[in-house]
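To the structural biology subgroup,

Please find below the input and predicted structure for MBL fold metallo-hydrolase, which we are adding to the shared reference set this quarter. The sequence is reproduced verbatim from the submission form. If anyone notices a discrepancy with their own records, reply to this email rather than editing the shared folder directly, so we keep one authoritative version.
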Amino acid sequence: MRADVRHVADGTHLVHGSNTNWVILQEGDAVTLIDTGYPGDRERLLASLAEVGSAPEAVAAVLITHAHTDHLGSAEYLRSAYGTPVYAHEAEVPHVRRDFLHQVTVGQILRSGWRPGVLPWALHALRSGGTAHVPVAAPEPFPWPEPRPGSRSDAPDPPRPLDLPGRPVPVHTPGHTDGHCAFHLPDSGAVVSGDALVSAHPTSRASGPQLLPDMFHRERAAALASLDILAGLESDLLLPGHGPAHTGSLRDAARLARERAQER
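Predicted structure (tokenized):
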């Protein structure tokens, strides 16, 4: 099964799976994988690694934006088959482990079934393994580098890049889930936004920067507040969890998403 791999910046590839994206950050033979798509996307996931000249055994780590099944699908497969570490924000680790599940329910979907696109999306999600139980047995919090020498112990240290291919910087953007994280890629001016900010979704008639419909968010007010966090990042390339890459000021993209959310 051929993957839809888009080279969007040096060493950075946005891959479109079946309604969900993942990102490959590449340095030589090693890669960092951000998210893994639906369980049913596994062949596409492996094909995308091959297309960029890599392989599952060369994945240095899997970074999880959040633990919804359409992003977590093959994380445990990579961990158990290849020993790949799986990292997430500390607040998301128990969600990744499936100590609990904060995800849109069947009841919420049925109540919104009259909206255009919702039922076709739900059918696709079922066929792609969206209700599968896919816990990661041993997820870990991000392996933050040691604080810089001379930094004050009582002062908050600014976010630091992880020592992984692509040097991603996790940015906590709660709301969609409690531990949702985006990843800033300062070297390429890109932000991997997961579901904190998307550019399209089968359940939305809008195209371009937007929040997902309210039924998908754990806490809508926090999701709106996280748009301000994203707006503060220096970026002109948005790599969302759903929809195509969006080029332009991230600040403007976040502002547009907020305006659209307030019109609902």
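Summary notes: Residues 36 and 71 are 5 Å apart (CA to CA). The chain is about 25% helix and 20% strand.

Regards,
Lab coordination
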